[in-house]
Predict the 3D structure of the following.
Amino acid sequence: MKVLFVYKYLTLGGVEAVLRTRLDGLSDFGIKAHAWFLSYVDGQSILDPADPRVWIGDVEHFRAHLQENEYSLVSSIDTEEIFPVIVDQKSEVKFVIEAHTPYRENLGYLRHAGDVPITAVLVPSNFQCEFVRPYLTKPVPIHVVPTPLMDRFTTDLLEFSPRPERPILAWIGRLDDLKNWRDFLRLAGKLTELHDELQVWVAGRALSRRTGRELYMVAKKHRLLPCLRWFMNLPYSKVPAFLDAVRCSGGVVVSTSKGESFGMTIAEAMARGCAVVVPSYGPFLEFVEDGVSGYLYKAGSVIDAVEKANTLISDSRLRDSYGQKARETILEAHQAERALALLARCLEHIIAD
């Protein structure tokens, strides 16, 4: 079985991390996996463009590649640009769509896929399944397949050296409205009033220089400049160490996101044994058990999030207990070998149907 996964661009992101895990692990299940990207940005640290399983080219090059190579299945990950090619191709290749985007404006393409021979739609969570369903204009089976975590997150926990002297309140994500970095800084400002020794770490890219300037101004407003560190271009290979530092410092990882299809950064934090505080909505409800493997706070309530984060920072036993349970919970479903086994079974079923 030979499968081609297609995505818009090769950059440093969650989709690329998932694809790297698939390319490395699906061979154990008799599947030869390749990945095609319509353009290259900066994702070499995750997927090397020189890797013979990695292809980069525009839609016309993709068309030629599909004509010259035999695949059992092609999967488009939110990449509607290739739809005309799939409509035109006359082979027996099965075609599936993977709907990973949490941005409503980016899901509209599904409403224009009427002529595309879609065999199935794959999503990373039950929440995303219901989120996507209204956008489909024809009955298509939707399969929920777990997201595999890269081995660098699931290996044995390491002590970070030198051990941070002050607890770290951490946030990871794109600096945009959906990921809601402004509420995180509001939250951090209130927490530093309770813990004057707190460090505040933000890891994520600004979409523009204007966003970077706004980050500075909002941080200044909440009196965070003395304790704030912004990791604006943190290499993906360094994220596990970043999370180890948070855990060893006695800190927590917080999400203030307004929309997720899965919640990769929180899943990765849990895999590294971090205590997490997340909004009580969407996919987080599927893998964070409130008061057991993390804290859920009322979505949109900075005050509730502050109280939950403060409890964990103040109580080392509780924090360690939540972190341990978080790791156990997330590895049970999302360790690469287990998650890929379910994906392989799903792909085999689609191809055989």
Residues 165 and 249 are 7 Å apart (CA to CA). DSSP finds 14 helices and 13 strands in the chain. The longest helix spans residues 316-334. The two ends are 14 Å apart (CA to CA).
